[in-house]
Design a protein that fits this description.
Blueprint lengths: L3 E12 L2 E14 L8 E6 L6 H7 L6 H12 L3 E3 L8 E7 L13 E9 L11 E15 L5 E12 L3 E2 L2 E2 L6 H15 L4 E5 L5 H13 L3 E13 H4 L2 H6 L1 E2 L4 H15 L10 H14 L4 E6 L5 E9 L4 E5 L5 H7 L6 E9 L1 H19 L3 E6 L6 H4 L3 E11 L2 H11 L16
Parallel strand pairs: 1-3, 8-11, 17-18
Antiparallel strand pairs: 1-2, 3-6, 4-5, 5-16, 6-7, 7-8, 9-10, 11-19, 12-18, 12-19, 13-14, 14-15, 15-17
């Protein structure tokens, strides 16, 4: 395949010597997309979303921030299709963030936003610099410890979306291999910033997509791996327990209790592949950020007979940030959609301690969020080696895969071995606050 040359702009931030200007570099990359027109691709710190007009002006683009945000909302709400190459799968949904960019900025504190823009022709001064947004993704900077205690920087990709815009009934951006060009930008970012490990949830296992990503990865001299997981959905009206809810204790503001909670998290998740909460400082940075932006997200414990920890977990109310809409639901999801159950979702994460107490904690939280905040569904993700797999399991479920990209095979395979449970199953850190 003949490759074409494209460029993207990597913006480091404002120029310290001239704050009215941005400090950026132009990076040339090889691309295999079949799109005929020019593309303007930008990669910039998430903090600049609030000052996006200055970014757009720098590249002679329409500097209307609200227009940019509307384009972001349109692309980000493109359906995330969890189907395989045969079209099989129950769950396809659209994410609608309540307020952009505020709602997307609270989950990770250090991220790069990558956007792909298609400049549009204009005849008047008012249309100068018009564009359509083709692609949007967050490149979240994480770091994690390996078995030797060495810290490695890495990337976690999320909210990866491509436009489904149509002109005269034709999807003008789909089937143009724009996805591979976006991934080429991501590959170059890892090279530029000396990142050797990246991973992302890729939805339901789709062999065609997996093969395409793997070929793209190998073309760049890197390696790819897949880790499977299961997405479980519980209906709170059926799942919740009022008696369990009465026993829960809110420890969200109890620093001493939270330190004890973190110690249990560290014991349980310390060996996991890509565990990014490897210090108390990182734990508090994440929980404080979400608790301050989501008044209904809380950290609860279930006490034992002596008042000690029997179980604990962080319960994130995604309803404070977004709502989901199912697209062409199948099976039980038709009922869920008809009852508008997906408007708000509860996402329990960082669950610790025994299965019986953890099950009661999750049921109590489901009851409380249904009755106090009208949250009708609880979503829990589990890997096969999850000690709480049976707790999280639901009749309503969908298989997911995580795609891992790396270029340090010896280190990666050593980390995989360290992460394995007694049965030899790889345990991946999936407790990120937003998929």
């Amino acid at each position: 395949m003949k490759l074409k040359k494209r460029s993207y702009y990597y913006i480091e931030g404002k120029d310290s010597s001239n704050p009215s200007q941005l400090k950026f570099i132009k990076r040339e990359i090889d691309c295999e997309d079949t799109f005929e027109d020019e593309l303007i691709m930008l990669a910039f710190p998430m903090g600049l979303l609030k000052e996006i007009s200055s970014v757009l002006t720098q590249f002679n683009l329409r500097d209307d921030a609200e227009y940019f945000y509307s384009e972001c909302r349109e692309v980000v709400s493109v359906p995330e299709k969890h189907v395989n190459e045969k079209g099989e799968g129950k769950l396809t949904f659209q994410s609608y963030f309540h307020k952009f960019p505020d709602s997307v900025q609270h989950f990770f504190d250090d991220a790069i936003v990558v956007v792909v823009l298609h400049p549009q022709p204009g005849t008047g001064e008012e249309s100068k610099g018009d564009y359509n947004m083709l692609g949007y993704i967050h490149v979240n900077l994480i770091d994690f410890k390996d078995a030797t205690g060495q810290i490695h920087p890495g990337y976690y990709y999320n909210i990866l979306r491509l436009s489904e815009r149509e002109v005269n009934g034709e999807a003008i951006y789909r089937r143009k291999r724009i996805f591979t060009t976006l991934f080429n930008v991501l590959h170059d970012l890892t090279d530029l910033n000396d990142i050797h490990f990246a991973y992302s949830s890729m939805g339901r296992e789709n062999q065609a997509i997996n093969d395409a990503v793997r070929m793209n990865v190998e073309r760049h001299g890197k390696f790819a791996d897949i880790v499977t997981m299961r997405n479980n959905t519980h209906v709170n009206l059926l799942y919740g327990s009022g008696s369990a809810a009465k026993k829960m204790i809110d420890i969200s503001t109890d620093r001493d209790a939270l330190r004890e909670y973190y110690s249990m998290i560290k014991d349980l998740r310390g060996p996991l592949l890509f565990n990014q909460i490897h210090s108390e400082e990182k734990f508090f940075a994440m929980t404080d950020r979400i608790l301050s932006s989501s008044p209904t997200s809380r950290i609860y414990m279930m006490p034992d007979a002596k008042g000690n920890f029997a179980a604990a977990g962080f319960f994130i109310n995604w309803g404070d940030y977004l709502h989901l809409k199912l697209q062409n639901p199948k099976g039980i999801f038709k009922v869920i959609d008809a009852l508008h159950l997906t408007d708000k979702l509860l996402y329990p994460t960082l669950l610790v301690e025994g299965n019986d107490a953890t099950r009661q904690l999750a049921k109590g939280a489901a009851y409380r969020y249904l009755n106090d905040h009208n949250v009708k569904l609880t979503v829990m993700n589990a890997i096969s080696a999850d000690p709480h797999f049976e707790v999280k399991k639901s009749l309503i479920h969908d298989p997911f895969v995580y795609f891992v990209i790396y270029d340090r095979p010896e280190i990666y395979h050593a980390m995989k071995e360290h992460s394995k449970d007694e049965a030899g199953n790889v345990r991946l850190f999936i407790d990120t606050p937003m998929l």
